[in-house]
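I have been asked to look over a protein record a colleague put together. Alongside the sequence sits a line of tokens, each denoting a local backbone shape. Please read both lines and tell me whether the tokens look consistent with the sequence. Take the sequence as given and treat only the tokens as open to question. I have pasted the whole thing underneath without changing anything:
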Amino acid sequence: MRQPEQSGPGWFAGPAAEALLAAETRAMERVLVGVPALPWLWVGGDGAEYPGSESRRGVHLARTRRGFGGDLHCVLPWPLVSETFGAVLLQHAFDGREDTGALLGECMRILAPGGVLWLAGLNPWSPYRARWWRAGLSAHGPGYWQSALARAGFPAGAVSLQWLGPRWRLDDDGAGIGAADRLRAGIALTVSKRVHAGIPPDPVRRLRLQTGLGSARTHAGALRQGPGPKP
């Protein structure tokens, strides 16, 4: 029986993960280009490296056994202000862990309206799974993540999907959305936090219209009645 190349979540620090992480880094950098003014948050699993952006607006959190380390040492809920971040990048932040709903809920809370969530995970349908099988990691298909995002409040119909990394060769760090790309090692989902429009003042306008109509009817009735019986 084939043994895993490296056990535990530390698999991402090994050579088999290099091409996948390189493709993910380029994808994250493209996301950050779209949020030039707001701060952003990166959350990664063991061995993942946050994007080498020159911006100092990034907050970096690494998963630990007891919570999160990096720029902050904390647990959920995060000590971060609501609706502040332009992007949240989750790079294998769930692999081998069961706090999907709580973590996505925090992402929804801290994202500014129109902010972008980018989520990367392993592709369970890729031949590359033989390289991380029995390494203490977990993988889910796009349908699982789309349902999880919808439960957290993200718009289910606005999720874009991309496949990243190698199909089998260690030096293949490509990406794409075609049929052949569905065999790549990783998947990445991107979704924006929906902007809720204000409630239009329709009820007020309707009430004013009804009031005016009622007054007009009363006035018309008074005119029909005339000045009263002649003497």
Notes: The chain has one domain: 9-192. The first strand starts at residue 40 and ends at 44. The mean pLDDT is 82.
